[in-house]
Amino acid sequence: MAAEPWHSPAGTILAVVSLAGLFPPVAALFEASMRMHLLVQMPLLAVCGGYWVCQSTRLKRGLARVDPSGGIALVFGSGWFIYWMLPVSLDLATFDPAIRLLKIVTVPVCVGAALTWSWLRLGPIGRGVMLLEAWAILGRLGWVYSISPVQLCSNYLLDDQQRTGSLLLGAALVSAVGMALWALFGPFRRSHGTEPE
Amino acid sequence: MSARTAIGIVLAGCLVTALLWQRTAGFSAFTYETWRRVDVAREAAPVSDWRLQDAQGDFVRLSDWDDQTLLVGFIFTRCPSVCVALGSRYRQLQRTLQANPSSDVHLLSISIDPDHDTPARLAEYRRRHSGQRASWTVARPADAEVLDDMIRETGLRVIPDRFGGFSHSESLHWIRDGRLLRITDWHDPELEQKLIADGG
Q1: Dist. CA A191–CA A189, nearest whole Å
Q2: Residue B121 domain-assigned?
Q3: Inter-chain CB proximity B35 and A88 less than 8 Å
Q4: Does B116 lie in the same domain as B141?
Q5: Cα distance between residue A1 and residue B134, in whole Å
């Protein structure tokens, strides 16, 4: 395992693609539509932070000292997650360079890394709550975006907003069904022949 | 859970609450349009002396109305939806102004599509809504630089739609003495009272 994530090819690619979002031509590409911005760039940035936590033993040691339970990271990460789900933040990140920089820094660190750390430290019930809350947020947001007759983001057209809403709902549904199948047929399943207690 | 972790969680909670409070102007503005209104009301930011060309082809400046409050709406004449509603609303407001000559408000519609909206088309827009020249000026920015200044200074967002037009804010901007004082809805039912009462 690489000592630092950016020493591995996958880490390098993730870091470069994430940082490239600061340069106007790449930023224009990522921010051209609401779908690209919310469903491609944001998850990519978050995955970058999550990968960093998973790969860096030094970072994990540091986090284990500061936040051994993962509770601080959960609260902090959830707050920043909500921040970046607000239409106003999404809009400002498309034309205010300071907010764009904030996005490139905080989505990997404060959302991706923080939530990954808390996921690693939480037990099955905590993870279940986290997943349910994530689906609820995706569902609520997707619902609002798909049914709102008002353009919620000033930089994105209404049809783009509605399509993004449908995709968010789809993402919530697919991941929920996937997790349900995993819970039913995955490693948590009782072995064959065991009678219910 | 250790005391240290509990304190950490409380601090993290306070931090993110403060962050969300700041971004949403006290949990009141979740979209850019509402946030812009709160920001404008707080700052009363200065606007430059925009140079405009009116429907008669004459060049005018914002400072020409220095003793009046300007109610500025942004339109483009090809717009099939909100600009039509804005035109009708301005005609209603003009009737209110005509009935209350003591009001010092002047109506100003500015085109965000100056290449297409010639003075003749601007005049036709006002005529279509039975508007009169006296208290309602329809104009376009004199050049692209003025258009950029207007967009930057008001925080207006203008994005091309799929039909060769634009999607833009339909709010009304109150400007006096070179300052953007507030932004309101064009369908605000109290707009007439505001026109009469305090000039905005």
Answers
A1: 6
A2: yes
A3: yes
A4: yes
A5: 77
The DSSP secondary structure of A122-184, one letter per residue, reads: --HHHHHHHHHHHHHHHHHHHHHHHH-SS-SSTTS-HHHHHHHHHHHHHHHHHHHHHHHHHHH
Q: Which residues on chain A are in Cβ contact (under 8 Å) with B185?
A: none
Report the pLDDT averaged over residues A66-80: 95
pLDDT grade for A194, boundaries at 50, 70 and 90: low
Nearest to A72 among B12, B24, B157 (CB): B12
The answer to whether residue A152 sits within a structural domain is yes
**Same domain (yes/no): B19, B70:** no
For B44: left if phi > 0, alpha if psi spans -120 to 50, otherwise beta; the answer is left
Task: Report the helix count and the strand count for chain B, using DSSP H and E.
Answer: 6, 9
Domain limits for position B177: 42-197
Interface membership of B16 toward A (CB under 8 Å): yes
Whether residue A19 is contained in a domain is answered as no
**Cβ A88–B23 below 8 Å, yes or no?**
yes
Buried-exposed string B62-73: b where 16+ CB fall within 10 A, e elsewhere = beebeebbbbbb
Q: Which residue type, as a one-letter code, is found at position B132?
A: Q
Beta bridge partners of B158: B168
pLDDT at A1: 45
Domain count, chain A: 1
Torsion region of B135: left, alpha or beta (phi above 0 gives left; psi -120 to 50 gives alpha): alpha
- Please report residues of B whose CB lies closer than 8 A to that of A66: 8
- To 10 degrees, the CA torsion angle through B74, B87, B184, A83? -60
What ipTM is given for this predicted complex?
Answer: 0.87
Q: The domain containing residue A119 runs over which residues?
A: 26-54+65-185
As averages over each run of 10 residues, the pLDDT of chain B (200 residues) reads 89 97 94 94 93 96 94 94 92 93 92 96 95 94 96 94 89 95 91 75
Within a domain: residue A21? Answer: no
B25 and B101 together in one domain: no
Q: How many domains does chain B divide into?
A: 2
Confidence of residue A20 (pLDDT cuts 50, 70, 90): confident
